[in-house]
Design a protein that fits this description.
This protein is mainly alpha-helical. It contains 7 helices and 3 strands, in the order H-H-H-H-H-E-H-E-H-E. It folds into 2 domains: 104 residues, no CATH class; 73 residues, HUPs (Rossmann fold).
Length: 209
């Protein structure tokens, strides 16, 4: 594919026609890499261990500068390059992914949550600020949907509702795939329009669990 594109560019007879678009793809790639590096540094993920440490401000400014040069140099070619890369990203994001690289967005969300919790702990609790945080234990999320709906209704979309499925079994039993069970349960809850979090735990006995 790369050979076909290169030969097509050569057959045009004028490399200056292709040069702006090639430059735009380079600048967008370099800009996104800088922005992602800034987000990774801010997120503080343990997997982010670059050999060369660069302050996140420098990386962020580099990414913004690339975007600025794109629209200053050739806005049309820049827009075409960005739209092309967005379409490629949408296509790849819809493919089944089996990688274990993680997602920088999760690291950013974790950092924001930690930042908010630290500041929340310094604020005194008042009656008018009270929010219900409900933990619902179920043995079967489908059979106990009414209980889950009640907990969700009680929270009035102001607090956090977590539905915990208790599975009787042995934690060392490899046949009990907790990830798949949690994913399936979250799908059931989402289909019911319930904005709640799904959790799965293995216990020796439901009551003791």
């Amino acid at each position: 594919m790369a050979t076909v594109i290169a030969l097509g560019a050569v057959l045009l007879g004028d490399l200056n026609t292709v040069a702006p678009f090639v430059s735009m793809f380079f600048l967008t790639s370099y800009g996104v890499i800088n922005i992602v590096a800034a987000l990774e540094t801010l997120s503080g993920d343990a997997s982010w261990r670059p050999r060369i440490r660069i302050p996140w401000v420098i990386s962020l400014l580099g990414g913004i500068a690339c975007l600025g040069v794109i629209f200053f140099f050739n806005p049309l070619a820049g827009i075409i390059a960005i739209l092309t890369e967005v379409m490629i990203w949408v296509f790849l994001s819809r493919q089944e992914s089996t990688d274990r690289w993680g997602d920088v967005r999760r690291g950013v969300y974790e950092s924001l949550i930690r930042w908010a919790l630290i500041r929340l702990s310094s604020r005194p609790m008042k009656a008018r600020n009270w929010r219900p945080h409900i933990l619902v234990f179920v043995s079967d999320p489908v059979r106990n949907l009414d209980l889950i709906r009640f907990g969700n209704w009680f929270s009035q979309e102001r607090g956090v509702v977590t539905v915990c499925e208790l599975v009787v079994g042995d934690i060392f039993d490899e046949r009990l795939n907790l990830h798949e069970r949690r994913k399936k349960m979250q799908g059931v809850l989402d289909n019911e329009g319930l904005v709640v979090f799904a959790e799965t735990n293995i216990v020796n006995d439901v009551v003791e669990g």
